[in-house]
Amino acid sequence: MSDVERRQDRAPVPTDWTYAPAPEARDIVTIEERYGHYVGGEWLEPAETYTTLSPATEELLAEVGQATPAEVGAAVDAARDAYENGWSALPGSERAKYLFRIARVLQERSREFAVLESINGGKPIKESRDVDLPLAAAHFFYYAGWADKLEYAFPNRRPGPVGVAGQIIPWNFPLLMLAWKIAPALACGNTVVLKPAETTPLTALLFCDVLRQAELPPGVVNIVTGDGRTGAALVQHPGVDKIAFTGSTDVGKAIQRELAGTGKRLTLELGGKAANVIFDDAALDQAVEGIVNGIYFNQGHVCCAGSRLLVQESIYEQTISKLRRRMETLRVGDPLDKNTDIGAINSRQQLEKITELVESGKEEGAEIYQPPCRLPERGYWFAPTVFTNVAQSYRIAQEEIFGPVLSVLTFRTPDEAVEKANNTAYGLSAGVWTEKGSRILWMAQRLRAGVVWANTYNRFDPSSPFGGYRESGFGREGGLHGLEPYLELES
Amino acid sequence: MSRLPVRKTYKLYVDGAFPRSESGRTYEAEGANVARASRKDLRDAVRAARAAQAKWGAATAYNRGQVLYRVAEMLETRRAEFAELCSGRDEVEQAIDRIVWYAGWADKLSQVLGGSNPVAAPYFNFTIPEPTGVVGVLAPEEPALGGLVSRVAPVMVGGNAAVVVASESRPLAAVEFAEVLATSDVPGGVVNILTGHKHELAPWLASHMDVNALDLAGANGLAPELERAAAENVKRVHHGRADVQSPWEIAAFLELKTVWHPIGV
């Protein structure tokens, strides 16, 4: 340890991190009392409803539809009608302009969406404002440009649309996942029935107003809300040509089973248990920021979260002490507060799942650390957590927790790091921290993961393909490769 | 006096060797007794494939291309024998040419299927194709040689290892093809060929947790059941055809990896 580092290590940690509250204004967004399903460009009065709430306060926000199979059927019919009567025959250049419009309207109304995303989903406003919204708009802008250039992406393959796409998205990045699904589907000439997650329907429903402003033809995008039953009805509907699902590996497998023998196309973006590998030559302060960003970004509700930290033994003590110190500065609380680092856990159900897995970690023998932090009394909260003394066989080292919980393991040699990093059924992402460029590429070659971040973590870009190996799913979203799931192509 | 010919014993091809079925069973096809592989043989073949895949997948693309080209060379020298085991000379020549065509793809795939991505941040971001891993192949029943080659060559050239269930009704060309592979610098275990009853072997192949992908070209009516079993570990399922020749047949058994490499001083 150098003198400078020693001095830094001894630097006193401020005991009181109280800030004056800095809440983002909430009145920019209007939440209706009740929402229907958006079918054929109109609001369909739902037969059944449920209440969506704010996970930070448990305040009831709105009544939304629990779509029945008949309502899902109406949405599929509307999508089919729009597909056959105009949209699929529209020149790519015209489709492009609709998508450019959507991108622009999203940029213009970005703050409104960011606030609503934080209210309904619990994520910190600084993330919804600086990550979710800019990326969602960028995604539409990126795919807009592809709409009239598909034959350059797939030369000699006569690209054409697939038909009606059924899309089911998760609650961790509600609007961003909507963008990942809708933008390429529309660019390729398909029409869409999308089901947002049960707990986070509001930004998808507000998005229907963007479609109105963009004057998108009715039926091109249809949005039905509801829980897993609605999703199942969409998957089973014979009028759907393609299913795109992002969510848990268990549900993904069930969908793959359900579609067996139907000939429907399928892409799956499922769970992960990513390794974030820190070598002893890494810029440690940067790496600690990367560790924190990797696991505490969005409360750890990230399929590609760096939930397994692999630290080289020689820097283990130092890394853990720096990490703990950094964790003490994380602010947990009101998602709408601009200083909040960690917001609310998305739902009671998810909180119970995290709690159960954390208990299993303690029981199996891992050592838990949580920085002292006061959690709000109402709502769903979980303090940032790190487990040390974790064996590879522990559930917290194998199962996706999908919460702010990090499991730390160590390694001595690069080969051991690769061995441990690849030792799960998943393969979505991985991180590598080292100052040595050749080692980055050596590791990147061997990590069985669809995305490898070097000296950074949790970065996304519309031009960069994203998706998993093994049980993390198949198909890519983003980039040129993200077009393929939405195209019929000649071989 | 006419000479009595020496007949060949038709066996399995697993891990570079030619064992009989551990079950001791055979079945009669094309006038010969052919090994009837068991579930245990299939599991041995998967284990051999898994063991061989890492090295084969890590071989340079140039090397894999040359090995495939060598397969074509070996096939070329045995054209007459193969013509007897399939529809004739045309099928053999087409199979040879197809292998040569795929051999040439080995070192072009990542340029055609991958690329660099212009992300809005200081990173060099690139996407490259990598092998999926162990691929289970149900070879088409017909054509005996052409169907097999059309399905196995794209799996191999991408760096995967294969466990192939041969045509049940026309297995002899597949066993003969195993001899070609064995003399072509293809490392043992990269391609394993089982003969036997498809309905007996296919479900175990489809549900095997160490198989990453399936080509159901020869599944016939079994496809829905096999697709369902494949979901257990999220296998990639491809419905290959006996006659197609395309780089997208290779792509069906490739994963895309995207790497963010920092740019800075």
Mind explaining what this structure looks like?
The complex is a heterodimer of chains A (491) and B (265). Chain A has helices at 3-10, 69-84, 92-108, 110-121, 125-146, 150-153, 174-187, 202-214, 228-236, 249-259, 284-296, 316-327, 348-364, 395-398, 414-421, 437-446, and strands at residues 37-39, 42-44, 49-53, 60-65, 160-161, 164-168, 191-195, 221-223, 242-246, 265-269, 275-278, 308-312, 367-369, 385-388, 405-411, 429-433, 451-454, 473-474, 487-488. The model of chain A has no long low-confidence stretch (mean pLDDT 96). Chain A is α/β, with parallel strands linked by helices. Chain A contains 16 helices and 19 strands. In chain A, strands 13-14-15-12-11-16-17 form a 7-stranded mixed beta sheet, sandwiched between helices. A 6-stranded mixed beta sheet of chain A has the order 8-7-6-9-10-18, with helices on both faces. A two-stranded antiparallel sheet of chain A has the order 1-2. In chain B, 42% of the residues lie in helices and 18% in strands. Chain B contains 10 helices and 10 strands. In chain B, the strands form 3 sheets. Chain B has a 5-stranded parallel beta sheet with strand order 7-6-5-8-9, sandwiched between helices. In chain B, strand 3 (115-117) and strand 4 form a beta hairpin. Chain B is globular, with a radius of gyration of 19 Å. Chain B starts with 25 loop residues before the first strand and ends with a strand. At the A-B interface, helix 10, helix 16, strand 17 and strand 18 of A face strand 4, helix 9 and strand 10 of B. Strand 17 of chain A pairs parallel with strand 10 of chain B.
Short description:
With 491 residues, chain A is of the alpha/beta class. Chain A has 2 domains: 37-270 and 469-488, Aldehyde Dehydrogenase, Chain A, domain 1 (3-Layer(aba) Sandwich); 272-454, Aldehyde Dehydrogenase, Chain A, domain 2. Chain A contains 16 helices and 19 strands.
